[in-house]
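A protein record pairs a chain with a discrete description of its three-dimensional fold. The following entry can be read in just this way.
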Amino acid sequence: MSFSFIEDPSGRPAWHGVLPGRPDAYFLRRGEGEHAKLFGDVFTVLCSGDESNGQFGVFTQEAPPGDIIPTHAHAATNETFFVIEGGVRVYVQQADGRKVSQLLGPGDFAFVPSGVPHAYRVEQQSRMIGTATGGFERFFAAMGTPTDRPMPDGPPFVPDGARIGAAAAAYDNQFLPDFEWPE
């Protein structure tokens, strides 16, 4: 299944080469970057571990209300959430075992260190910017499907179990399906 996915003659996504792929100064215009659709969301990589010597990745996320990202933990990945528009409820398990959540609105920020179980639910149509330990930003394309547009039309892209498992293994992401959060 593909959503407005355009390949060049070599079979690469139309946005291939937008990022330099090495530590080099560059600029992106609004809507540029490496786009991938996952469920109803579109993730856009603005800076990958390739450009930051593996230190960090920067990505945006456009998400419809109702989207729920299930509980998971990244063994070696730190992650941030910064809400630009909308509302996102972030759930985390504190070091003392307490399970807490916070509704984030425009301008609000959350940090989730590596190894910490977390989840989030999009309460209102949202735009977020995130950072993660370098390399993890490509998880969304591995689990989703590349697209040439920052907001493609069409139905959600729902990966099959094999794709989810492969992406989770490749990016050291552990899903925790039996984890429950207080409302």
Notes: The domain at 34-153 is CATH 2.60.120.10 (Jelly Rolls). DSSP finds two helices and ten strands in the chain. The first strand starts at residue 34 and ends at 38.
